[in-house]
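Hey, resending since the last one bounced:
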Amino acid sequence: LKPQNVETLDRLFWQVSDPESPLYGHFLTNEQIADLISLPEEDIQTVEDYLMKDNGQVCNVFVERSIHKDILNVYTCAGQAKLMFPNLQLAVYQNQSQRKVLRSAALTDIAHNLQLLGVPTDIHQYIAAIHEVTDVPMPIFHVGSNVNTTIPWSKSDRELTIKGMMDLFKVNYDGIDSSSMKVDDAQVRQAVVEMDRAWFSAKDLAMFQKEYSVAQNPIRKMLGVTEEESTWISADYEATLDIQTITSIAGTVETWDIVFTGDVSFLHIAETLLKTEGLPKVISQSWIGYEDDMTESQVTATSIGYMKLGLTGVSYFIPSGDTGPNMSASCNSYDPQYPPTCPYITAVGGMKVND
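The structure tokens again:
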């Protein structure tokens, strides 16, 4: 839906984040954000009535409001979607393994898409964009690298260790002792966000912490993966390195591992985190994409999602990318990476290990 008071929310974001501002640290509640950003109730109801309208009902329609009432998630079948959006072009693709997937024509220019999709003109004033029309549930796949926990760590000059990285970047830091902090305080929690259903190896983490004499800090909470699944799904190198690094630096600070499947958008991740109870206030995510793979409206909506996280007091850290500005071979163009270009999160550099 069309967000309201975005300029006001942007100004508040920088004020609550600026130590020199009298509003520094005065974060907003989800209710306060909703009051500012959402359309009036009657306008939201108008859009919902259109989506739920009985126009030759093929199947049920379920409409879910986001926590701030600025996004409507609509769940229905393809036939009903065609009734909602008469000009929607859908196609079924099938590969050699007989696996089928439903997809729609790419929505590239959202300024004209509402009309192209057949949305009545009297509804246009309430809708900013329509995203992920065929974000259908996908089978769970994960092609990752197994972390071999049977091979002992070899201490060599080429070894990538926490101390080695601290020395490399000339950081004098001995970690945080949170033993005297309240562990139930979200301010003293951190989380790692992974995509593509990438797991870490709990066995590898325990061995790593023992080998390098860092605090024994198991992951306290896992979202998106069960304890049972974590024992038999192949671990991923990047996910395991993420967990090793953040737990080693933060000492005994409570750490969560939040895992998403590979087919979700960054907007979906931001909105899911916003409604997660007790969400840690420090979040690290090593997965990024490219601006060129997103429409302008998708970038705008996602950036607002990160802004709302910051307004609630969440510090979001993400790598700026492994390849700098991602230049072309001829160095005459580049493809900016996202979310590092988002102004509401902190990009902290990137590292690519070739060997």
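Residues 22 and 230 are 45 Å apart (CA to CA).

Sorry for the duplicate.
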